[in-house]
Amino acid sequence: MTKEKFNQLEKLEQVQYINNQLKEGYSLTKISKELGVGRSTITDRFKKVNYSYSKDSNEYIYNDSVTAVEKVVRDIKVKEDITIKEIDEKLNNGSNTDVSLMSDKVVQSNLVNLSNEYQTLIEMIELYKKNSTILSTQIVIDLENTDNKLTTLRVNTNVLRQFNEFIDEHKEYKKVDLVSMALKEYMSNHK
To answer: pTM above the 0.90 mark?
Structure first.
């Protein structure tokens, strides 16, 4: 599967794809390299839909510490065999499908999409209530799957200390990924 196709899948479909690959004996590292998507990116995406990696079962498992609403919406998603794209195609092609049933499926699909962004929405509401500027705090590692090269750079002492403290607090990220993303973002912002 290509990176683009993988990224177009809904998050729960991504979880299912990765779990299927793990069951076939592939390692998470190999899967992420073949997809061209960083391991930490996969982990972060799956955390948003309450899935975490279990070393014991070698798969991403659903975390039960979610609200009742999230659980109901997730159950709806699991029971549904139709996607939003399929619903749109049927409605636009003049299919004889019962429109009220299709409307229910659209509502259910929309609820699922909202539940996938539940934590983000809660954070935005809290920030809005505080009358703060809404900023994205999620770090997305979006790097091509290439080799790393060891190099020496001179860095401001205070900046290096702060960076190391940040790394100590955020063990889910690798230094090489963060430095590479910082350089990439700097270049794209200052072209």
So the answer is: no
